[in-house]
Design brief:
Blueprint: H1 11-16, H2 29-38, E1 55-56, E2 62-63, H3 66-81, H4 88-93, H5 95-98, H6 102-108, H7 110-117, H8 121-127, E3 137-140, E4 143-146
Antiparallel strand pairs: 1-2, 3-4
Length: 148
């Protein structure tokens, strides 16, 4: 799939015929929010939808991932900081509403503990960095790349 004119795209957005999408985490929450706002998203005329991706258990069932919920909340929090008005549900999902210490939450969640136990503590450290990246990953031809 090729990127849209604003450089944000996703297969889900194309399937829904709605606004294009990007991927985010604690590391690039402000960069994505700034990009969305810069392209006019997050208004009544051009609403933005933030979805926590989660993962799958070995049996295929949904495994909600705390780090994905925190990342989605962080993006919503950055949109609010950029002056966008959030719905009550989005407000409840923001980083501040969810926890005052997202780093501790990542270190203590199941996924964080699994990474520590499997010898990847640096992955938790990197994931817990807030606003350390200005790159916005967008889906192009089935792979993520840095937005232009």
């Amino acid at each position: 799939m090729s990127p849209s004119s604003d450089g944000l795209t996703s297969s889900a957005a194309a399937a829904a015929g709605r606004a294009p999408g990007g991927a985010a985490s604690l590391r690039d929450r402000t960069a994505l929010a700034d990009r969305l706002v810069g392209h006019g998203y997050g208004t009544a005329e051009r609403p933005a939808v933030v979805v926590a991706s989660g993962e799958r258990w070995p049996d295929g069932s949904l495994r909600p991932a705390l780090e994905d919920l925190r990342g989605a909340g962080a993006v919503l929090d950055a949109l609010r900081a950029a002056g966008r008005i959030l719905t009550p549900g989005a407000t409840a999902a923001t980083l501040r509403a969810a926890t005052e210490d997202p780093v501790a939450a990542l270190h203590g969640c199941d996924s964080g503990r699994e990474l520590y136990e499997n010898g990847y503590p640096q992955d938790v450290e990197v994931a817990a960095e807030i606003d350390s990246s200005t790159a916005v990953p967008v889906l192009v031809d089935g792979a993520f790349q840095e937005a232009p």
